[in-house]
Amino acid sequence: MSTKSRKDNKGRVLRPGESQRKDDKRYIYQYTDPNGIRRVIYAVDLLELREKEKKVIRDQLDGLDTYVSGKATLNEVFDRYMATKYDLKPQTRVSYKYMYDHFVRDNFGNRRIGNIKYSDVKLYYYHLINEKGFKPVTIDNIHTLLHPTFRMAVRDGIIRVNPAEGVMAEIKRSNSWDKGTRHALTREQQKAFMEYTANSPIYSHWLPLFTVLFGTGCRIGEVIGLRWDDLDYENREISINHAVIYRVMENGKAEFHVSTPKTKAGKRKIPMMEAVYQAFRDEYEAQKESGFNIEICDGMSGFVFANRNGGLHNPANINRAIRRIYEAYNAEEIIKAKKEKRVPILIPHFSCHHMRHTFCTRLCEVEENIKVAQDIMGHADVSTTLNIYAEASDTAKLQAVNNMQKIFDIF
C-alpha cells in the first residue's frame, strides 16, 4: 500500500514536518528540540524554509557533538538535566533554577564538564564555605543539584566517573563543617517564650500562631496554608494536605504558591490538643473584629492566619517577630535575674523550624512508639525521627539521673 505524499500548491512534494498554510500560503516546518519542546519555523517560499531547516539540523548536531565530546560546560549539562526532569513540581523547578543560577552558573558552571575532577568540586565547596561564608544547608542544596547532573553525564557516557561522588561525605567529616544541628528549646525556654508573648501588649497577637506551631509540629508552610475547612473541631483533627510557600519565581518576583506534599507521609491528620483547639477559637474570634484573611492563592481561600493587611504571612516576617520577642525577653530577664540574684533563663536564637523540632522533641519525650511520632511529624524517613528521639533521650537520661539523686539521698 503506497503512502500519498503531501504537496504544496505548486505540486512540489513536501518532506516530513513540512506543510503549507491554506490561508496565506506560507510554508511551515515543525520539529521537536532536544528538550522535547515542539518548535515551528515559517517561510514565504519552500527554498527559504529548507535553508532554515538545514540551520536547525546543523545547530542540533553541533549541540550534540559538543555534549558527546565532553566539551559542554557544566551549565549546558545542567540545563539538559533539568529538561529531563519532566515530573518536577513547578515550584521545585523554580527553586532548583534559582539556586543554580545564583551560586553556580556564573563561575563554576562555565567549566567544561570533561575537565572537572573530584578535587575541583571539593575545592569549590570549600571556597563557598570558607571564603563566601555559605551555610551548610546551602552547600547541601547545591550538591543535590550538581551530583545528579554529573551522574546523568556518566550514564550518557560523556564522562567516566562522577567527580562529585563522595565529596560531601568527606567535607562533613572535616573540621570545616559546622553541622548546624537544630536543637529544641528546653521546657523552661519554651514556657518562658510563650508566657512572655501572652503577657506582652505588643506581641500577644502572635500567640495563636505560635501555639499552633509549638503544638502541632507542622512545617511553617503547612501552618500558613491552613484553611478553616482543614479543621475538624468535632473530632479534634487537623488535616494537612497542602502548604503555602513563598518563593522567587522565574520572573524574579517573590510570590505565594500552593504546594502539595512531596511524599505520602506529608499528607496526614494531626490530633488537635486542647491548647491548639483554643488557639484556633481565639484566632477566629479576633478575626471577627479585625477581619478575616481575604487572600486567594492558586484558587484557595479561607486561610486561618492573616497578617495585618488581611493576607498570608511571609515566613521571614514570622522569624523576625520571633527574634524581636526573644531579644526583648532576654534583655528584661537579665535585669530581673540580677535583682533576684539568680541565673537568668535565656532563650537562644531559634526560628519557625526550631518550633517544629521542639514539638517533635516533646513528643519523643512522652511517646515511645517511633512510628506514631513519625506519622504525626510527616517524616518520610524514620531516621529523621530517630535522630530527634536520640537527642530527646539524652536529655531524658540526664533528667532521670538527676531525679534519682534527689529521690535517693545516698550521696
Automatic annotation (TrEMBL):
Annotated region (Disordered), positions in chain: 1-21
Protein name: Site-specific integrase
One GO biological process term: DNA recombination
Function in brief: Site-specific tyrosine recombinase, which acts by catalyzing the cutting and rejoining of the recombining DNA molecules.
Keywords: DNA integration, DNA recombination, DNA-binding
Lineage, broadest ranks: Bacteria, Bacillati, Bacillota, Clostridia, Lachnospirales
Biased composition (Basic and acidic residues): 1-11
Name of one Pfam family that matches: Phage_integrase
Family to which this protein belongs: Belongs to the 'phage' integrase family.
